[in-house]
């Protein structure tokens, strides 16, 4: 009798030390406009005890660079003899995260002992303060079981007194019940000031400053909303292309020009790739809502009140907004929903507004226009649009 072949289990992927090494970026050479945030972070980390940092914000805002600069600060290094960087965009699930910890700590698997027990035993006996940068933690967090398993693992690791985390993540809050210090306060990491953006542009592009070009550079940087990744990529192009041509390319092609020529698209080399990493996490309704919001360059003022009236045929639009906020595709500023310019331009081109959403928005603003032309009290009108 011929036996029936049984399916073989898929071999578990192993994360190697080389995997982590080659995905760990160097400390950035050009780093402008973040001194107050770095100072705040160093002060928090150097307090007594455990003080975990969460660096939150959209893709391209400079979270990884900020974490590296903070982790390599001289005062931080005096407290933490060891700094370990875990590139969580290659650590897709809880098993990968566990292997990542094992590799950076050089813990060898032991026969008859699970990896997590080996890790916990190491941390239990370790007496020296150790700092881990968990970079791009949204990757394992958004895995199908990440909210349970990844959360459980890092919460357990955080119970060891020797451990401190710097976590970077797209979203509004750090994961789990760990007492995160949100760097920059309750809001996310902000965009750069125009002065810091200009300084970064000239340092990267090596262009000569002149009164004639500075105004044009500032106008272009403002069009990019002073987003660090966009500035870096446009400045690299400026090494070969003059500012007038760059401005024309941006006006014609928008985010298509924000990529590093000759490289594989990635989160550090392409604005569109970075945005798409977040978009792919959305369900269809949230994606359609994102397309609709890109239709509104000034965002949605007073959105908690306005959105349900603007989109009466969308069930619970606020729930979908929370999805967008969790992916850092939209930002909340002074009770208004906003999109950074590179995100808005990419979404408008790639995920154009549907007729279903456009009709509701147009009806809403026609109603506002009629209110303005009527005898309605100014307060009734401005309550919608301020």
TrEMBL record:
Gene3D superfamilies: P-loop containing nucleotide triphosphate hydrolases (3.40.50.300). GO terms for molecular function: ADP binding. Residues 29-170 form the Novel STAND NTPase domain. InterPro entries: nSTAND1, P-loop_NTPase. It comes from the Eukaryota. This is Novel STAND NTPase 1 domain-containing protein. It comes from Tetrapyrgos nigripes.
């Amino acid at each position: 009798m011929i036996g029936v072949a049984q399916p073989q289990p898929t071999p578990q992927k192993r994360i190697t030390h080389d995997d982590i090494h080659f995905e760990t970026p160097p400390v950035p050479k050009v780093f402008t406009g973040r001194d107050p945030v770095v100072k705040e972070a160093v002060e928090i980390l150097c307090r007594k005890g455990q003080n975990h940092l969460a660096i939150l914000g959209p893709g391209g805002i400079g979270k990884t660079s900020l974490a590296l600069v903070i982790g390599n600060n001289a005062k931080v290094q005096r407290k933490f003899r060891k700094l370990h960087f875990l590139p969580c965009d290659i650590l897709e699930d809880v098993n990968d995260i566990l292997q990542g910890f094992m590799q950076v700590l050089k813990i060898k698997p032991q026969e008859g002992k699970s990896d997590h027990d080996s890790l916990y035993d190491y941390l239990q006996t370790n007496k020296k303060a150790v700092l881990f940068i968990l970079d791009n933690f949204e990757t394992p967090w958004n895995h199908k079981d990440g909210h349970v398993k990844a959360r459980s693992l890092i919460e357990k690791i955080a119970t060891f007194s020797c451990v401190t985390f710097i976590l970077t993540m797209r979203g509004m809050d750090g994961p789990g019940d760990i007492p995160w210090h949100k760097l920059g306060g309750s809001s996310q990491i902000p965009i750069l000031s125009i002065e810091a953006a200009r300084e970064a542009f000239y340092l990267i592009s090596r262009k000569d400053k002149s009164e004639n070009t500075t105004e044009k550079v500032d106008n272009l940087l403002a069009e990019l909303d002073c987003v660090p990744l966009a500035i870096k990529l446009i400045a690299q192009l400026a090494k070969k292309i003059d500012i007038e041509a760059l401005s024309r390319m941006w006006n014609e092609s928008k985010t298509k020009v924000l990529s590093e020529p000759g490289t594989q698209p990635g989160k550090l080399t392409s604005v569109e790739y970075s945005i798409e990493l977040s978009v792919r996490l959305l369900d269809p309704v949230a994606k359609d809502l994102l397309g609709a919001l890109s239709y509104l360059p000034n965002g949605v003022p007073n959105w908690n009140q306005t959105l349900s009236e603007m989109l009466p045929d969308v069930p619970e639009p606020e729930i979908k907004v929370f999805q967008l906020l969790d992916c850092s595709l939209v930002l909340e500023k002074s009770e208004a929903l906003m999109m950074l310019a590179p995100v808005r331009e990419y979404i408008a081109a790639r995920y154009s507004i549907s007729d279903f959403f456009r009709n509701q928005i147009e009806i809403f603003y026609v109603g506002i226009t009629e209110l303005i032309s009527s005898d309605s009290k100014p307060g009734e009108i401005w309550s919608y649009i301020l």
